[in-house]
Specification:
The complex is a heterodimer of chains A (123) and B (410). Chain A has 123 residues and is α+β, with helices and mostly antiparallel strands. Helix content of chain A is 36%, strand content 33%. Chain A has five helices and six strands. With 410 residues, chain B is mainly α. The radius of gyration of chain B is 24 Å and the shape is elongated. The N and C termini of chain B lie far apart (63 Å). The chains are: A alpha+beta (123), B mainly alpha (410).
């Protein structure tokens, strides 16, 4: 089963991304976690996202375009990245989510992908 | 009634529920053979208490009041159900003389039977601990779900399914016969220890609501020992948990950093808990019926010698691990054995044991990689050590341990 781990981070966490290098606690933890996912053979894909302020939202309302700067949701914690996992069950996905560095400083939402909907759209 | 008066009543209800929950559920379910029904009846009684007690005052014997009220609702339920004839005998001793009578002031403690039902072989072993936490301690599904890392809805459904099986599957509320007792008791002990392990894992201090799961587990083991005082393995389990619990304050430095056992300051260990653990272990050993929990407690007891200024006898630890592996060679035991062997027979020997372990089994087992990293580091094989550290960091769940390993790796 494929699951998405949606990673929500606070402004502080977004700020600590700048301290790079394998010895930095933020980057070091994420590098190690990513490697563990890959070596366990559960990593399908995923990426970090740029800071929320770089987002641009667009909607069409009554045929009128409306474009706004910034992220869609006005919350303290913002979507910071996502990872797609292939694991046997939700239990296994949650186990990996608990090990995610963001679980201790932010929030990790685990949600199944929707293969049926995908099939109807893609095929 | 004043605000503070109402609060006082609520606190009383909470306290009575806390102290008597398991006893009441056990007593009710033994008589109805229906755990879910007993729990429902008790929560109904608790709800009723929330409205009646602030109005009429707290009854003289709150526990008896709850029992009578819950019992009446069970009887009502059975009457509604037009209970099938063969259930009637079970209900007979159960018909109340009058509401609030004093018969219940001394009702038998049936929690032992309840513990054996929760860890019954017909129930999925993964549900033994959650059932105990709910039925005997009254923890709600949300809290249990968090501890077991499943969604609250899923945990709720699994609990309901397990209780339906208890009711419909002919699982009797009884203490097993002598010849079945050892395996059945093992299952109960395993479930209690699992609760302790979870409580131990989340000792980051996140749980502010009441006692932690570790303390709940110790309490369950005490209940069990009270009812079966001669059982060496119960004493062993208690000794094991008390030894670990004694070190709680030493596992973090004042800044919240993780401190591994070998670097803990024994002066921070709770000496009364260490001594209590030693007493249980000594009594257990005298019985001559050695078992898994006594062996694990013995390992902790060797470490505890540092509290008396004595060095750790690694040779003894190696022996105890070897015995544990003979009982069942789990990856945890093999990892512990390798770490101890590195102290007595040299780092290379320890590493050899780690090398010989099943690659697939250890792939996601965090302690294996942490031990491996430290042994490689000692041998000066820095590149391999760094890789093993990376693996241990990636698999760590506790942020304090993750941070500790990140620092170690450098």
């Amino acid at each position: 089963m494929k699951f998405a781990m949606l990673i929500y981070e606070s402004p502080d966490a977004f700020a600590s991304r700048k301290n790079d290098g394998p010895h930095d606690p933020y980057t070091g933890a994420w590098r190690a976690y990513h490697k563990a996912l890959v070596e366990a053979g559960v990593f399908v894909g995923g990426d970090p996202l740029e800071v929320p302020e770089t987002g641009t939202t667009i909607r069409l309302k009554d045929g009128k375009r409306s474009v706004q700067d910034g992220p869609y949701a006005d919350t303290k914690e913002q979507l910071g990245g996502f990872t797609i996992l292939e694991v046997p069950s939700l239990d296994a996905a949650l186990e990996w989510a608990a090990r995610c560095p963001a679980a201790s400083y932010g929030v990790v939402e685990v949600r199944p992908l929707a293969p049926e909907t995908r099939r109807r759209i893609v095929e | 009634m004043t605000e503070s008066g109402a609060e006082k009543v609520h606190r009383t209800i909470e306290r009575v529920a806390r102290e008597s929950y398991g006893r009441l559920v056990a007593y009710l379910s033994v008589h109805t053979q229906d755990l879910a029904g007993a729990e429902d009846a008790l929560s109904e009684a608790l709800l009723k208490a929330l409205t009646v007690w602030p109005r009429d005052g707290v009854p003289q014997n709150p526990e008896a009041w709850l029992l009578t009220t819950a019992r009446n609702s069970v009887i009502d339920f059975f009457r509604h159900q037009r209970v099938v004839l063969d259930s009637e005998p079970n209900l007979m001793p159960f018909i109340p003389n009058s509401v609030g009578d004093s018969l219940e002031t001394k009702y038998p403690d049936e929690r032992l039977k309840l513990l054996f039902v929760c860890a019954h072989p017909a129930i999925d072993p993964a549900m033994h601990t959650p059932l105990m936490l709910q039925a005997v301690l009254g923890l709600d599904a949300v809290r249990i779900a968090g501890a077991f890392l499943v969604s609250p809805k899923t945990m709720g459904q699994r609990l309901v399914r397990a209780k339906t099986k208890i009711r419909n599957g002919g699982i009797r509320f009884e203490v097993p016969e002598q010849q079945q007792l050892p395996p059945r008791l093992d299952a109960v002990l395993e479930a209690i220890y699992a609760a302790f392990g979870i409580g131990w894992d989340d000792m980051t201090g996140a749980d502010q609501r009441g006692r932690g799961l570790a303390e709940e587990a110790i309490w369950l083991a005490r209940v069990l020992l009270e009812q079966m005082p001669g059982e060496a393995e119960i004493q062993g389990l208690l000794a094991l948990m008390l030894h670990c619990e004694a070190r709680r304050a030493a596992r973090r430095d004042p800044d919240g950093h993780y401190v591994p056992l070998s670097e803990q300051d024994p002066k921070l260990w709770s000496l009364p808990l260490v001594e209590e653990a030693e007493r249980y272990l000594a009594t257990a050993f005298k019985s001559g019926r050695l078992g898994r929990f006594q062996l694990e407690a013995a390992i902790q007891s060797v470490h505890a010698e540092r509290a008396h200024g004595r060095p750790v006898e690694w040779k003894a630890i190696v022996q105890f691990y070897a015995q544990l592996i003979r009982l069942s060679p789990t990856i945890g035991r093999q990892t512990g054995y390798a770490a101890a062997l590195a102290e007595t027979d040299g780092t290379e020997r320890g590493l050899e044991v780690l090398d010989s372990m099943d690659r697939d089994l250890v792939a996601a087992y965090q302690p294996y990689w942490a031990v491996r990293a430290s042994l490689l580091e000692r041998l000066g094989r820095n590149a391999e050590a760094s890789e093993a550290y990376e693996r241990a960091i990636g698999l760590a769940e506790d942020p304090a341990i993750r941070k500790f390993l990140l620092t170690r790796r450098g």
